[in-house]
Amino acid sequence: MLDELFEIIEDRKNKQPSGSYTAQLMAAGENKILRKIGEETLEVVFAVKEEGDHRLVEESADLIYHLWVLLSYQGIQLDQVKAELAARHKRDQ
Q1: Which conformational region is residue 16 in: left (phi greater than 0), alpha (psi within -120 to 50 degrees), or beta?
Q2: Are 11 and 70 in contact (CB under 8 A)?
Q3: pLDDT tens string for the chain (93 positions)?
Q4: 8 A C-beta contact, residue 64 and residue 57
Q5: Nearest Cα to 26, choosing from 80, 55, 66?
Q6: Spatial separation of the C-alpha atoms in residues 49 and 37, rounded to whole Å
Q7: Whole-prediction pTM value?
Q8: Are 55 and 47 in contact (CB under 8 A)?
Q9: Which residues have C-beta within 8 Å of that of residue 77, sequence separation ≥ 6?
């Protein structure tokens, strides 16, 4: 689903469909996306400390989504992140 989510984000960035939250974030620009990442990061922390595992899962999904939006906005492909993770894994073995 993570690959599919990134493809959906890319599609909405390119097509800018009316009513799309992703398209609205892209149009609002980098600062808005960064604010959303900051908000979601705090919500992950609060979920861990006060709200339980279910909220942690929900807030983690929100954080991942907004991070994927930032990557797309910056023109970074998900495969670049995967390659970096693979390279780190290979170095650690």
Answers
A1: left
A2: no
A3: 899 999 999 999 999 999 999 999 999 999 999 999 999 999 999 999 999 999 999 999 999 999 999 999 999 999 999 999 999 988 878
A4: no
A5: 66
A6: 19
A7: 0.91
A8: yes
A9: 71
